[in-house]
Amino acid sequence: MAKVIINDIPVEALNDASILDAAKEVDIFIPTLCHLDLESFNIEHRTGSCRVCMVEVELGGRSKMMPACCTPVQDGMKIKTNTPEIIQIRRTVLELLLSDHPFDCLICAKSLDCELQALARQFGIDHLTYTGERSSYPRDTSSNAINRDLDKCIMCRRCETACNEIQTVKVLTGYKRGFMAVVAPPEMKPLNDTNCVFCGQCVNVCPTGALTEINYINPVWKAINDPTKKVIVQTAPAVRVGIGEEFNIPENESATGKLVAGLRRLGFDAVFDTDFSADLTIMEEGHELINRINKNENLPILTSCCPGWVNFMEYQFPDLLHIPSTCKSPQQMFGAIAKSYYAEKIGVSPKDLIVVSIMPCLAKKYEAAKPEFINNGVPDVDYVLSTRELAKMFKEAGINIAKLKDEDYDNPLGESTGAGVIFGASGGVLEAALRTVSEVISKTELKDVNFVEVRGLEGIKEATVKIGELDVKVAVTSGLGNARKILEKIRSGEAKYHAIEIMACPGGCINGGGQPYIHGDTTKLERRMKMIYTEDERKVIRKSHDNPYIQKLYKEFLGEPGSKKSHELLHTHYHKKREK
Fold first, then answer.
1. Which whole number is the average pLDDT over 334-344?
2. DSSP secondary structure, 340-406, as one string
């Protein structure tokens, strides 16, 4: 421990702690724009690039200005955080950043969520002190998922940290020097021409509007108001535990029924649940897993719900593309069933049926636009909105969902089980599969459907699950940096598993790139996870194969899991992509 004094307050802190960490211990606020708290990822990252967190440090009779976020404490330090000189330094840094920043705050997607805007307000900056030339770059919307507006980049390098150190995708880097310096792909390539997986974690950590999602609100409004189209909507599991934060719904109160009621008031013709197609995914994926175990080939199976990690595999582990499940994601399965089975039931042509997805994930926007999910010019899913975009639509329409009475999803594509709900949290897809596979293999009913050993926010979880006489070895990873560790062990033969769940975003979909911003508050992820499992426990049916509407779908339309029709509609294939 190091004993230091901060603003005349004695503080004890770990020797490797930063001054910023030590100040938090005594509730002293030090502003910063570049700092990311990466303790939960076991990553030590101290950039000190923004210089907003400057403090005065006296040690050994000498005093100098130091950045608090990347200066470790030392025994005997005397630290001042609020002298007139320090405040003026911070103000000057902010004024210089603002001098090269667009003033379109009223129409910026990050308005009121922008950390630069918040600090400017906190420091009372209400006019430009420095004027002159501003840097300008073309906007990148090539991916259909992420909007990159480098005019708003402040070189904090948080996106670079998220991409390179947490996700290990390594697409972003500091580019050019001096006044023209930005964080971008090498040679300023569009994101679609890189290895980007579109997970959106860069968007989540960007303090300004340099990185945001591509917005599809206006096309969705246009579709809803088109009398020639029937517009239906599906909501992903993690959306119901994120949307409530935008409307101050108490964390112990489910927002699901209010979400459904709000979507009806927006004008959607039917409101369905992606949890239904999550149950459908388990039927197909579970069948695939059982076949592989019986044949002892292409193991471990990798659950295929996350388009972010699919792209990651195609670029960085093309030699392992024989092990992912061939199942489409629940989003794409829903679209395929909606534009075949459901369209036929209601007598609507697939081209006149518009499917809108509400997703916690930005990679879902990219996924919906992939050519393999477009049949005869008709996409399985037409538009994908993030949880944040849906909140904006509600507010635009004057709908406060917190005030609405709960309503139920429509059928037949709205009935789901607890197994479908838990897809939203890391470990949930694998647990849902185990609930079904266990009963199919053992031919006995599970007394306890809770596989708690695969739950939690840890980046890597490993377990051995007893199914009948078989010891099934499983692993769960979230965050692509953790996925890389497991995949490299599989590649080298060091690790042997039967099944693996990979989620691109740390913590799973509850922390997706389209969820409400948490601004570093990881306790929000814990609350979202708790709500997911609470909703699972409240469900009458908690196993995918017990869903009566799934049983009816197979009886009336698909035949059986793994059938020819199932493969045509519900399965996909992967491509080896060359790393760029």
1. 96
2. IIIHHHHT--GGGEEEEEEES-SHHHHHHT-GGGEETTEES--EEEEHHHHHHHHHHTT--GGGSPP
